Amino acid sequence: IMVVLGNPPYSGHSANRSYEEVEVIRQTPGKLTKTGVTAVARKSIIRQKNFIGTLLDDYYQVDGKPLGERNPKWLQDDYVKFIRFGQWRIDQTGYGVLAYVTNHGYIDNPTFRGMRQQLMKAFTDIYILNLHGNSKKKERTPEGGADENVFDIQQGVAIGVFVKNTLNPPADGSAQVHYADLWGKRAEKYAALGQLSLDSVSWETFTPQAPFYLFSPQNLDLKGEYDRGWRIADIMPKTLLGSNSHRDDFAIAFDKNTAQSRINDLANTLLDDVWIREKYGLKDNRDWKLNNARSKVTSVTQPFQCLYRPFDTRFMLYGDYAFDYPRQEINDHLLYPNFALISTKQTKEDFSVFATNNPVGQHKLATPYDGSYVSPLYLYPDPKNPQLTNISDWQTEKDGRIPNLSRVFVKAFAEKLGLAFLSDGKGDLTTTFAPEDIFHYAYAVFHSRDYRSRYAEFLKIDFPRLPLTSDKALFAQLCGIGEKLVNYHLMRGAEGWKLITRYDVKGTHQVEAKHPSYKPQNTTDGLMPETTNGRVYINKTQYFDGVQQSVWEFKVGGYQVLEKWLKDRRGRTLTGDEIEHYQQIVVALTETIRLMDVIDKTVTFPMA
Prior knowledge:
alpha+beta
């Protein structure tokens, strides 16, 4: 029996190229002479797919169509190439076993759906023992205990055993997948692996289904319930990945003056490129060149306020003179009165959404590791091209804006609610509803803990889906709660909020190394139940007092908000505005937790 066995390298920056650089000579037209045009031989270097690059083409297709992924780079990971090579080698014999210990990302990441489908076609049975241990995603056991990696690395791993049995071939693409998890500490995993065999593992056997062909089991009844909702990208057609600079230390600044100074340096023709590169540590790449960037900057170029992290507003050098991918086709609409929903398409982290009324200065806003997508509520005409985008034929309203909403979705929701749709602003919620009502309703639903836990496995693999209600009273309630949440997250009216924390100790106001740190202070007055408040220290002596532990630990996606905001400011001296802003964040998070409790008491799933 042919057996391909191993522990191939895991590296997104593959050392095993999928192409070869080949020198070719082309005959191109030269000078015009009396006898005609002379031919000139010119040398050039082109890339041609090599053996493994050609084999990998199969993984970029699913159901006979291209994947359609904006950035399928993880299919070039070394371990993927080794799996494809092993698959090819087994095919040469006609039967055999491929057994690898690899990165476990291919099990359920949507980018690998074509790979999974091809493996199902190539093998009879597929055994996946997921060893987890992904510290990047802070994996925990189902009981909440510690989960360690068997190799003491950050990337989670899995054992995959792929069996091709020609004596019992499956129907095309109907291979059986046998799945099991192994959680716990490293020593516990070693002990279990030393005793287990394929026959003794408690496998869950299933046949993966379209469109993702996941190698981990799903609750199909629950999936059917979830799939009745509407994908955010289908509700709001103008949805794109957030911006990415690859040089945030330069493209993003904490204050406007610093950002403007950087722009002025770019525009100053007396400063040469070498000086600017050394001052700011700038390097050219495929998508950005310093000399080209400087040609786009003038004396009137201005920075813009942007959302960089949850509750963290900074200033961005706005445009492709600083960003590889500025996403101006999204951000331009956020230069005007607007809202945008920030969500994930796929993530290993806890599901999260957030709102912004500013351009976004980062593509990892809802989670630290996975890309966040931005869906503006309104679309504005381009001053250079007054014709509006062709995704909608809505009648324009004030300022020429139109709602970034699918007519098919709006029609379906209007019929379900029995309300007429207005294409701008808010409705009265008794006879009419409008774009901002939809936005607020969705924001409330997506902040339901029940929604997040009930549909957790599906929220990791695609855009969130919005269930629709026919209950007008419930719709109105959720619109009201969602509007409050949006206002807290946009910090609207924050200057009038009553602060619930204190910052009284005098000092340098500098966020020092190894800070922030949280120290609980248990208090009780003998009448009320004991509460856990605490102090958030920014250095050895100064702290924000009166921060509830639940608020300190509250996360938006993978970001622990209060910790992250201060951690990003290590070495900085906080201004008075920043000190007040931090205390306002505490208020916003406290109210978020309270409103999430209200939502859980208001709505149940599935929705009627």
